[in-house]
Structure formats: C-alpha cells, structure tokens
Amino acid sequence: MSHHPPTSRPKPTAAGNEEASAILNLGEFENVQPLTLSETALIINALTSKRRNERKNQNDTEILSKTIEYLDAFSRFKKKENIEAVERLIDAHSQFHPFEKKQLGSLCCETAEEAKTLIPSIQDKISDEDLQELLDEMYKLMPR
Questions:
Q1: For labeling, which of 36, 102, 111, 129 is most exposed (least CB within 10 Å)?
Q2: Cβ contact 23:16 at 8 Å
Q3: Where in the cell is it found (predicted)?
C-alpha cells in the first residue's frame, strides 16, 4: 500500500474565533507581542516623522492619517518616559498575559471593578486592592 503526498495544504484555522472573555482565546494572535495604544502612537509618530524628514514631499495616506488621529485621541500616555513607566508597572505583574497587560495600559480604568469588567480574564488573577493600587499608580502618570 503506497501513500501519495498530499495534494493540498492543510486547512488553516478559521479566523474570527478569537475571544477576550473570562478565558482568552487569541487564536493566531496568541504568541504575538501586543502594544498599548500609547506605544503604537509613539512608534507610528516616530516613523512618520522620520519619513517626512527623509522625503520632504511625503504625503500620508488617508488610512495613516486616520490611524494617527485615532491614536492621538485614545492613547492615554503621551510622553515616552510615562509610556515606559506604565510598561514597567504592568510588567511587574507576571500573572497577567501580555494581552491583558496591554489592555490595562490602553484602557486606563479608574477602578478595579471597571478593569475586571472590561478585561474579565484578570478576574481571578489579582485582588481588587492590588489592582486598584496598580491603576492608581498608572493614573499618576497620565497628563492632566
């Protein structure tokens, strides 16, 4: 009995099954290093600034312009030093998945209850008191 090599590629996992609820199911994004909105803004602004300096007549695409506009509106931390400080605060909590850490850094919840409602997978990973302490430390780094 001879076996022939397969004539087609294996079927990829269907996209769209990702879920960030009480249990994280990030699918193909499981091992991707996420970024906060503030980190993303820092990177995109640095790259576009470099491009503009290198190519004097560089026009941004509409999508890039809208992305920058969105990040400017929703990134909570603007200064590089504050972005790095928030990163250190959150990274000290090894019980969190990288996705959860970035959600905490992007959402900047006011209360532990709000954080656990918006990021249900952290529910049993940290006490309300410890989470509130983390959120309060992050709040101190936000621009006023």
A1: 129
A2: no
A3: Nucleus
Residue 25 pLDDT level (bands cut at 50, 70, 90): confident
Check: CB of residue 60 under 8 Å from CB of residue 48: yes
Do residues 44 and 71 make contact, with C-beta atoms less than 8 angstroms apart? yes
Q: Which amino acid type is present at position 96? A: F
Instruction: Find residue 90's DSSP bridge partners.
Output: none
CA distances from 91 to 40, 60, 97, 102 (A): 17, 34, 10, 10
Residue 127 CB neighbours (<10 A): 10
DSSP type of residue 29: G
The three-class DSSP label of residue 20 is strand
Tell me: the pLDDT tens digits for 66-122? 999 999 999 999 999 999 999 999 999 999 999 999 999 999 999 999 999 999 999
Output 31-34 pairs: Cβ under 8 A, ≥24 positions apart: 33/98, 34/98, 34/99, 34/101, 34/102
Query: Treating both helix axes as pointing N-terminal to C-terminal, what angle do 80-91 and 128-140 enclose, rounded to 10 degrees?
Result: 170
CB–CB of 133/109 below 8 Å?
no
